[in-house]
Amino acid sequence: MQTLIQPALLAQLKNLPLVAKTVAQGFLHGIHSSKQRGSGMEFNQYRAYEPGDPLQNIDWKLFARSDRYYVREAQRESNIQVWFLIDASASMLHKSSVANASSWHKLDYAKHLAATMSYLAQLQGDSVGLLSLHSKTPELVRAMAGYQHWQRCVLHLSQIEAGSTFPNIEHLQSQLSRVREHGLVIVLSDFYQQQQEILELMTQLQSPRTDLIAMQLGSNDEQFFPYKGRIHFEDRETGERRTLSGTAAKQSYLQQFEMFNNALARDLKAKGIVHEKLSIDEPMDEALRRFLTARIKKA
Amino acid sequence: MMPLLLLLVLAIPVAIHIFNRSEGKVILFPSVALLPKQSTPTELQIKLYQKRLLLIRLLLFLLATLILISPLLADFLKQNDLVLSDSDKNPPPLIMVTQDWWAISNEQQKQSLFTDIKSDAAFADIQSVFLVSSEPIDRIRLINVDDFISNGSRYPWFTISNGLQSDAITLKPQNTWAIAQAIAADLSEKAAIHIYTSNRLSQFYGKAVSVGTANQVVHWNIAELANKVANFDSDKAEAEPIADGISVALLAQDTDVEAASLNNMIIAAIDALRLIAPIDLKIIEPNTYSPQAAASDFDKVLLYPNDTAQTLTQVYSSLPNAVDLSGLPNPKELSFVMALGEALLQEQEVQKKLRNGTLSQGQIENRQTISYTLPSYEQGIEQATKSKHPARPNTLSLLPESKANNWFIWLISLAVLLFSIERIYSEWIHRKIFNKPPANNSKAEVR
């Protein structure tokens, strides 16, 4: 599960806080510059002593009992929940045709993104929750704080497999009620939908307490349409096939693609949802840094 | 054949077209709904266009190849007799008729020749006939075949009535082999050669050359000399009798005693020579017989110039057939007879051989070399055949110059036309496929 986190990426992003811009209960939850430990804070967990830890943090009573050094960690309780909703429909398996075998498809990208961002959230003490959306039983990891919970989240992330289509909204109601807490909801999807189901989901997630972010994952293939010659285009979800000449279809497709994007952006903007476009063919750290710094500025 | 193998190159694009019928890649695409449905031509249409385009381009390539190899192709066709022009399928034969054949063949033989020309399949398409006369200056003439049949006997330079009345003509030697070969030299490879000639020795005077090429069939129609003496054989030539008579005129001298005895001696010598050959002697008076008449009436005019009749004998001695007796030994001596016989009969002997000697059919057809040549005659013949080279309706180059040029121009024009069509068609397809705006653009549903 550690493969979902890239050390180099984390090293770059560690000092970028995840900004939850939520106004709730009359106070601003915002930047947490660091984990706050110490007396007065709620006990969080014991951790094995590591050289460099302040001696005052060692729980001497525990040492007396167990003859081992433990550091007592406390954490300020946070009301912020950070939810990651990952679209696990088959279309998320799309991978750029120009990419090599080891490159990511959209779901991989979403997993890495979720893992990284949840780590950041966990670092600043926020609760992290996870909901994978596919036509099989939606899987939910309840929002909790702490490193161990984050590890559970990452384990769950690594186990997500792409299903066939996007789940029916009605089947999601029980899960969605948990998601609608104070905090940040990040939807990772390609936003290709059969009957506006993703937008409907977004609409249902909207509440004054949540800060909804739509992260649209795209690829160079979709953007530039590099196909040439006679090609059978097959839909991953519906299985629909269209046989076309790549060059001949290009212009029409690009127009349609632009219209689709414009319509999506318009719809999201109308609902007041933050719309972020990411390309799986670009380095994730760049995109994430851009996203986070933009949020800091807004805050 | 090699240039034609280049055309196999044409098979390459076709083979690519046939073996490259991949079904097309299957690409799993996340948003097929965004792809056009009917706004572009279907695959079938695209393929159809491309097939036509392929056909046009192949044709273009074929034409270019043809244009490039057309010189080679022409050579190749020529060498292998593959030219399909009408005249070359069944090339008309060559007919050559010599004056001597005409002279000694009877009416039935001539009619048979005419009938053959008119109806025999071997003579189909024949346009004209070569007539070979004995005149060295105007030896060969090309006569239209219809003209020949209807007027054959009316060409004054060619016609000799039957019976060899004019020895002068039949004696003129000619080399029928050389003439036939000169005429046949430009003939098409397959054309047959029909030669109508006599077997008279004078007709085959000079060096024998082979007539025609190995592929050409030579038909010799030889009219046998009716009163032939013997087959000519150079080894036995000496033994041949000297036959024909000779008419001799003796110019009478002044009637003095010495002259009379001289005349008598000459007459006696001629009497002696009559044992060898018939000699018709006539004594003529210078005053009563004109020199012109003497030149035409007699083969030889004997004269004995002396001072008294100087002016007159000078006129006579300038005649072409005059024999100056003063150059011979004294008539009183025996050797005079020998010398006189030689002067009168030697030339006759040669001409006699030429006129009456014959060659066997084998000698004629097998083109044996006869070592019996007189260079001056040969030169005359060569000159005649060269200067009077006949028109050549039977000579067939592959494509007459103008025809070949036409061919070439047509090919190039066609290639240019095809190239234009290819460009326009290609451009049109390009526009049709790529530049036509999608028809259902506005109605496209965005999900």
Write up what this structure looks like.
The complex is a heterodimer of chains A (299) and B (447). Chain A is of the alpha/beta class and 299 residues long. Chain A contains 9 helices and 12 strands. In chain A, a hairpin with a 2-residue loop joins strand 1 and strand 2. In chain A, helix 3 packs antiparallel against helix 4. The radius of gyration of chain A is 21 Å and the shape is elongated. The two termini of chain A are 32 Å apart. Chain B is of the alpha/beta class. In chain B, helix 3 packs antiparallel against helix 16, helix 9 runs parallel beside helix 15 and helix 10 packs across helix 13. The longest helix of chain B is centred in the N-terminal third of the chain and has 37 residues. Chains A and B meet through strand 10, strand 11 and helix 8 of A and strand 1 of B.
Task: Briefly summarize what is shown.
By secondary structure, chain A is of the alpha/beta class.
Tally of helical runs of chain B? 16
Shape of chain A: elongated
- Residue stretches of chain B low in confidence (pLDDT < 50, at least 5 long) are 162-166, 228-243, 368-400, 437-447
**Beta fraction of the residues of chain A?**
15-25%
**Which range does the strand content of chain B fall in?**
5-15%
Number of helices of chain A: 9
Looking at the structure, what is the overall shape of chain B?
rod-shaped
Helix proportion range of chain B: 40-55%
> Percent helix among the residues of chain A?
25-40%
Parts with pLDDT < 50 across at least 5 consecutive residues of chain A? 19-35
Q: How do the strands line up in the largest sheet of chain A?
A: 7-6-5-8-9-12
Radius of gyration of chain B: 41 Å
For this structure, the quaternary state is heterodimer
Overall average residue pLDDT of chain A = 79
What characterizes the major β-sheet of chain B? 5 strands, mixed
The spatial strand order of the largest sheet of chain B comes to: 4-3-2-5-6
Q: Provide the residue-averaged pLDDT of chain B.
A: 70
Identify the most extensive interface between protein chains.
A-B, 42 and 28 residues
> Helix- and strand-based class of chain A?
alpha/beta
Alpha-carbon distance between the two ends of chain A: 32 Å
Number of strands of chain A: 12
